[in-house]
Amino acid sequence: MLVEEIMNTNVITLSPRASIAEALHLLQKHRIRHIPIINDQNHVVGIVSDRDVRDASPSILDRDADQLVLQNEIQTIMTRQVVTVHPLDFVEEIARIFYDEEFASVPVVQNNQLVGIVTEKDMLYTLIQLTGTHVQGSQIEVKVPHIPGMIPKVTSLFGKRNMNIISVLVYPFYDDPNYKILVFRVQTMNPNPVIQELREAGYELMWPNNIPEPKV
Amino acid sequence: MTCKSSFIYSDDLLQYHFHSDHPFNQKRVLLTKELLESSKQINGQDMITPRMATEEELLLFHDLDYVEAVKKASEGQLNTGSGLEFGLGTEDTPIFPGMHEAASLLVGGTLTAVEAVMSGKSLHSLHLGGGLHHGFRRKASGFCIYNDGAVAIKYIRENYNLRVLYVDTDAHHGDGVQWAFYDDPNVCTFSVHETGRYLFPGTGNVNERGIKEGHGYSFNLPIDAFTQDESFLHVFEIAFKEVVDYFKPDIIITQNGADAHVFDPLTHLCTTMKIYDQIPKLAHDLAHEYCDGKWIGLGGGGYDIWRVVPRAWAQIWNVMKTGLPASGDLPSEWVNKWQNKATVPLPKYWHDTDDINPHIPRKAEITDKNEKLLLNLLKYTKNTI
């Protein structure tokens, strides 16, 4: 999946000369946590997070604080080394950036122009779509040897029963490199016939379908 | 205590029939009725014949093009491709002749129950042909075509403007009804079910609380696979009481799927008849305490049609009629009549014997997890003002 498929193209931005107060206002108004800072040519020159802005704001506990600091320009507090991505980058790569860099939003840049933004939340939403847990279905987990040809063998049983598969995930089996767990979400309320067939075909099912007992 | 109650029944309810290998089998309703007749708990005066729901009534919840598609399918005029968009012609909801009429009768039965209670003719009314909680606005799913519960609640809202509490004890999440009223603060849904991690439909997380004005009016208790009686009853009873006290409904509708039983082939819950004695009793007590008795009971899932569903459902009626579940021996007349047709030995008593309780190694862990869920659910049942 590509970044351009999940990015938000309606980006809230500020110029470097805008005040910290404006940034604060935008963060609250749009309930966002990051604002890319762009120059007249729509180039990303910095980014501020809600934490940057909060750090620069007077404490709410300090009533006599000097509110004038909020009139400082945003470029005085913005981060200048901005990690950006391209619309044709893979979503998986952004997950890596979020994990490694420990920030939660990246501007999307094409031909030096800001074209979108992707947040950690967009990423998680995509993950939910990939797992298929947002649509009705039953989940079946099958443990298979980590060798070629296992997925077609297992899925053919679903196909024969005219059972629509919503998603397929391949998990590691703990630390054992010889096995994988295939996780299927299938669009049926009655997975029993196919579970029975999987058992009869000798596949090892994971909990709770690994035990015909204690359900009598 | 004897309450004026009505039992919605007609043999025509059995027309809702996909095919002979399909797990959803409305013979359950007939078996229940006959069990009650044999035990002299019901007579002709208790019964009301269900009416058909009109198309206008179906449209209180469903989309017109969906209803049109079901009508076409009903007459064999729908091709496979266009059916799939509406969930018609799948493994779960195959097409059968007359499906529109059969499904409309189930909805009509639930509306008949509503009318019986709202007219004051009955204090409680039971329609075991209903409770098809997976039906969506424009999609059949999970053995359900039209969602009678959702239509009936819309009907109550429009015609009587009552605050409705919908309580769903089917082992599957009552998703169709929940989503139908997800943004409605006048309809509170509470579903207890096996966690959706493995089981259809997968939703019903404790964090699904409703949106917009409806935020805080959707409750879910997704209990762990292999949960047994004590833990089930413990969390359900506390949650039910707290939700009722928080929401203060004018009427209670219960969906009484009977598939959380250890014998049920479709789910992983491991309860016994104990919960099916207690669930209606609790609903009955709370309906009297908060709603002047206004209580409508519906059927739902339940796939062990011989050993589980007839007893579980008959107990709802026993409670409606007498305030208490029945106990002791089942009438031999019923057992003898059906034993040779049944695929398993029929039970002898209203209760289950202890030997059906499996040993669950993770019991303590399951009990603990369920308790944590309960505490999570209860965060929203305290009136803060």
TrEMBL record, chain A:
**Any coiled-coil ranges, and where?**
none
Q: Where is the CBS domain?
A: 7-63, 78-133
Q: Which Pfam families match?
A: ACT, CBS
Sorted alphabetically, which PROSITE patterns does this protein's record hold? ACT (PS51671), CBS (PS51371)
Record flagged with keyword Ligase: no
InterPro entries in the record: ACT-like_dom_sf, ACT_dom, CBS_dom, CBS_dom_sf, Diverse_CBS-Domain
Assigned keywords, A-Z: CBS domain
Ranges of residues in domain ACT: 139-213
Alphabetized Gene3D superfamilies for the sequence: CBS-domain
Keyword RNA-binding set for record = no
What CDD domains does the annotation carry?
ACT_AcuB (cd04883), CBS_pair_AcuB_like (cd04584)
Q: What is this protein called?
A: Acetoin utilization protein AcuB
TrEMBL record, chain B:
UniProt-listed Gene3D superfamilies: Histone deacetylase domain
What CDD domains does the entry give? HDAC_AcuC_like
Q: In which pathway does it act?
A: Ketone degradation; acetoin degradation
Query: From the Swiss-Prot or TrEMBL record, what is one GO molecular function term?
Result: histone deacetylase activity
Which of UniProt's keywords are assigned here?
Acetoin catabolism
Residues covered by the Histone deacetylase domain: 22-319
What InterPro entries does the annotation carry? AcuC, HDACs, His_deacetylse_dom, His_deacetylse_dom_sf, Ureohydrolase_dom_sf
The keyword Repeat is annotated on this UniProt entry: no
Domain of life per record: Bacteria
Q: Name one Pfam family in it.
A: Hist_deacetyl
Please list the GO biological process terms of this entry: acetoin catabolic process; epigenetic regulation of gene expression
Q: Which family does it belong to?
A: Belongs to the histone deacetylase family.
Q: Output this protein's name.
A: Acetoin utilization protein AcuC
Annotated organism of origin: Oceanobacillus limi
